[in-house]
Amino acid sequence: MSRAYRPLAVAAAGLAFVVVVVGAYVRLSDAGLGCPDWPLCYGQPVPSDMAGDALARAWKEMGHRYLAGTLGVLIIALAFLSWKLRRSPWLATSIVALVLFQATLGAWTVTMLLKPAIVTAHLLGGMAILGVLTWLALSQFDDFFSAPPAQSLRVPATAALCAAAVQIALGGWVSSNYAALACPDVPLCMGQALPPMDFANAFHVLRELGQTPRGELLSREALTAIHWTHRMFAVVAVAVVGWAAYRAARFSRIMGISVGTLLAVQFSIGVANVVVSRPLALAAAHNAGAAALLVSLVVLNFFAFRAPRATHPVLQVNTP
Known about the structure:
Helix content: 55-70%
Radius of gyration: 21 Å
Number of domains: 2
Largest sheet: none
């Protein structure tokens, strides 16, 4: 039983990454309402009574649900083994609680017709589960890592994780409001550094998709404000995460280069999405890049805050 725990933790973290990426693909391919009911699809566990595009959208949505359901089963098994083996039981239990809340958000996403606040919260819930599962999996391999003098990494690692979380939330708000092409040019927005924007309606949380709180159509200025804010905070996130990558490289070249490379790739994909008008593959890759960068920052925080228990190193550690 104890031998199964480590591979199960790694498998759960890996599947969580897949679920996040597939969920983003479902949303970006306009299949989020491919099944108008929940948890079944048109009252069936396997969609079949439709044809063409409707069937394809239904299968995308149900495929995501089945993957998420499989992840839920793995997490429940992890929680059971955690209590049985006394390995981070409360952490595993908190992940179960997150999964239950995430399932509720998934149901609300459908029943509330893609309300932006629910869709964004659903994205953040998936990212949170991925991050905590990554931490749990890493904690099972403490005996494989040496303990670098990483206490001075705590501030940059925490700041980088917080900046990435805010940027992911802003990116989710862009996606859930279909504002990805509100600024069609780079680096300016419609040829201006400060285009006309409506922040009040843009970031009003309690409203329907595409509408203001008063039920009017959401203006171009509001969509521009959403996109512009995400773009401007990207500069902050790049600076903070880049600083963390630089500091991390002093202790482990592998960690520093990994975080820095993922950051550069993610920024480049974001720019490319605007330049080539956000094709589906690039948009999905942007979400996958965010998830990968989040995982790398969780790893960085793990080594900043948790000390391994053994002495044989796997990571190359440099003496500053």
